[in-house]
Amino acid sequence: MSLETHLIDERRPVPTAEEVHEFLHYMDDLNAIRRFQTMSWRFILVFGIAHLLFGIGLAGGFIDNRFGLIAWVIVTSLLIAVTGHNFRARCPRCGKPFRYRLVFGIRIPDGIADCCAHCGLRALSQSDLRRFEAQQIEERAHTDT
Q1: Distance CA 89, CA 40 (A)
Q2: Rounded to whole angstroms, how far apart are CA atoms 80 and 99?
Q3: 33 neighbors 122 (Cβ within 8 angstroms)
Q4: Which residue segment(s) compose the domain that 37 sits in?
Q5: In which residue ranges of the chain is pLDDT below 50?
Q6: What element of type H or E holds 103?
């Protein structure tokens, strides 16, 4: 885990027992959403760069027009497909989209899916679970003394 991710996780509140229980119930679906969104952003970056390079190559005459046009259409189609599918990540509990932001009327996912915009189901990280366990151990130590 990077330092930035660790710092961001530390600023998040420690999950409650109910949040941990709900996360464990929906864990497979939430982890699949998180993996898919991470993979989607990587594909969007790669396809975006490829799209730009093919456009420059076609405009500059570096790439044969037929090959370049076909490749450009394929890369554009893949970029649209991956981007469109990324916005359809649904909450396993309520079926509505995870948190998103409106930018010029376009729905953009707000980072990696971490919470449902509608029902509040949190997709907890390993750091969240470790902090919850540490809090539980600390509470047990205080009650034992």
Answers
A1: 11
A2: 20
A3: no
A4: 3-144
A5: 1-7
A6: strand 100-103
> C-alpha 103: how far from its chain's center?
17
Give the C-alpha distances (Å, rounded to integers) separating 123 from 6, 12, 15, 137, 141. Answer: 16, 12, 10, 22, 28
Nearest Cα to Cα of residue 98 among 108, 107, 89 = 89
Residue corresponding to tokens 């919470």: 115
CA nearest to 17, candidates 9, 8, 25: 25
* 89-123 pLDDT per residue, tens: 678 888 877 666 666 766 555 555 567 777 878 77
Domains of the chain: total: 1
Tokens of 128: 């969240």
Q: Which of helix, strand or coil describes residue 36? A: helix
Two structure tokens written together for 90: 């649904």
Please list, in sequence order, all residues whose beta carbon lies within 8 angstroms of the beta carbon of residue 33, skipping any fewer than 6 positions away: 89, 90, 92, 98, 113, 123
